[in-house]
Amino acid sequence: MQQPRDAVPNLKALQAAFGRSVRSVIADDADLQLLAGSDDATVFGERIDVYRNNAWQFFLTALECTYPVLRRRVGTDFFRQLTREYRAQYPSRRGDLHWIGAAFPAWLASRMADTGYEWLADLARLEWACEASVAAARRDPVGLESLGRFDADLLPHLALVLQPSLQLVASPFPVWSVWQSNQCGDASSPIDLDTGAEHCVVACVAERVAVYRLEADDHRLLQLLCEGMSLGAATEAAATDAEALGRLLGWAFGEGLVVQIVSPFRSS
Amino acid sequence: MPAPVRGAIPAQAGIGLRSPHHEAILNTAAPPAWLEAHTENYFHAGGPAVRALERARARFPLSLHGVGLGLGSADPIDRRHLECVRDAVRRYEPALVSEHACWGHVDGEHFNDLLPLPYTEEAVEHLAARVREVQDFLGRQILVENLSAYVSFASSQLSEGEFLAALVERSGCGLLLDVNNAYVNAANLGLDLDAFFAALPRHAIQEIHLAGHARRRVGSRELLIDDHGSAVCDEVWVLYEDVLRRFGPVPTLIEWDNDVPPLATLLAEAARADQRLERCRAAAA
């Protein structure tokens, strides 16, 4: 079985042949010859299936763990089919399985274009936001009373730093309703797409993912605050008013989503 | 984050930290001597797993065991991945850091699996260079684990034991000896276990893994699949006793990653390893 040194294929060529064999349904004869030699090529060809199956299962399981609601909505078989197609275009690019699903929402948007199921891509965006939220750092929140330390005329100039886990997702489809119904185990409830747009905020609170639904105006205002705009400038840019701002701030502070108040002069 | 436990991992049995046991491990009356965690599960800044490891780390000595670097890949090492390993090592201050004698990516694609290397002069030189690169980057020695494999390469020039011994000599790494992997390789590939263990440098072996395996028909014959999904089998316990006689008492991990049983089952497996470690110490006294 052992070969003289001058006949040894180099490591890169062997790994490329092995990779092609794992990727393909049936390994190429020339690759098997390179890997195993003529005597053992048949056995090698059979056993490469263990690695082929592992690579597929790891990929599938990673995607299933990231998109459990989507999988339940479309069913196991169709989810596997989508995974096969996605993997062909977006194979794993990292040694950390966490990233396997990163490109899935954008790919799914393209895959589902003009099918009537475009909302599936937005549901995937919401689930990826949950994944990102869980992985993000947690910071101690500050309370609403912190605002009281500032002079009233300074309030419009203050900006907020929000929890790193906070993610915003807006969709023309009722994706929050879909996600929420699946949390109760109701995977098959019909979706009334005429319900229209929903605007979601994802954050990790007390180590659990929370997905909130906001009104469109509040969502826009929160997005501007996330971008670092001051309270006054964000309110103006969102074409809303102090009452709406107060309502949003009361909710955000109450949920522990604000971690710092930034003044042009000092911060808390 | 609470201050981590410092100091070496004792020559006793430990178990893997798995999510079903995050709470129970802190409250059990007879805790294991140490814990091992998969490095890649702690690459992120937050999350329940991170919180659990932070809490456990304050109570137990820790080993971080990586599965994603693909040390033997001919393509360049993934620097982002390596930086994440470094960050995890700085954050959790493990007593041991380990990876595998394998490769995992080629032409930009990662297979997220532990793929076998040919036992060639080129491969051992390449792997040793990569281990040195990682050790330089982390500023510490790593352990490299022997792999379970289902194929062998026509181009191999060295035995598995010779390959690992050369790796230790050229890189200065330690070895993590997985006894189940050796047993699986003996069954699947005809590895000569006596020659394998005899070739390994005793001083390098700093950790042992014990795990269960499955049996699956693949093509024309049955293979042992290293699936970490069941109890350690009797034959591997016997082999473990032989390993302890050869190498002395070494920190030993019960690896059970799939179909994870109740904590009590894992601790009972750890107790079986501890009994053998104790007998080994008594015999040497």
Task: Give your account of this protein's structure.
The complex is a heterodimer of chains A (268) and B (285). Chain A is mainly alpha-helical and 268 residues long. Chain A has 2 domains: 5-121, no CATH class; 122-262. Helix content of chain A is 51%, strand content 11%. Chain A contains 10 helices and 5 strands, in the order H-H-H-H-H-H-E-E-H-E-E-H-H-H-E. In chain A, strands 2-3-4 form a 3-stranded antiparallel sheet. Chain A has a two-stranded antiparallel sheet with strand order 1-5. The radius of gyration of chain A is 25 Å and the shape is elongated. With 285 residues, chain B is α/β, with parallel strands linked by helices. Chain B has helices spanning 24-27, 48-57, 79-92, 121-138, 160-171, 179-189, 193-199, 234-247, 263-284, and strands spanning 13-16, 35-38, 62-65, 96-100, 103-106, 109-115, 143-145, 174-178, 205-211, 214-218, 221-225, 252-255. Chain B has an 8-stranded parallel barrel, surrounded by 4 helices. A two-stranded antiparallel ribbon of chain B has the order 5-6. Chain B has a two-stranded antiparallel ribbon with strand order 10-11. In chain B, helix 5 runs parallel beside helix 7 (193-199). Chain B is globular, with a radius of gyration of 18 Å. The termini of chain B are far apart. The model of chain B has no long low-confidence stretch (mean pLDDT 96). Chains A and B meet through helix 1 and helix 2 of A and helix 3, strand 5, strand 6 and helix 4 of B.
Structural domain count of chain A: 2
Q: What amount of the residues of chain B lies in strands? A: 15-25%
Shape verdict of chain A? elongated
Rg of chain B:
18 Å
**Radius of gyration of CA atoms of chain A, rounded to a whole number:** 25 Å
Terminal Cα span of chain A:
70 Å
Q: Which properties best describe this structure?
A:
heterodimer, A: 268 residues, mainly alpha, 2 domains, 3-stranded antiparallel sheet, two-stranded antiparallel ribbon, 5 strands, 51% helix, 11% strand, B: 285 residues, alpha/beta, TIM Barrel, 8-stranded parallel barrel, 9 helices
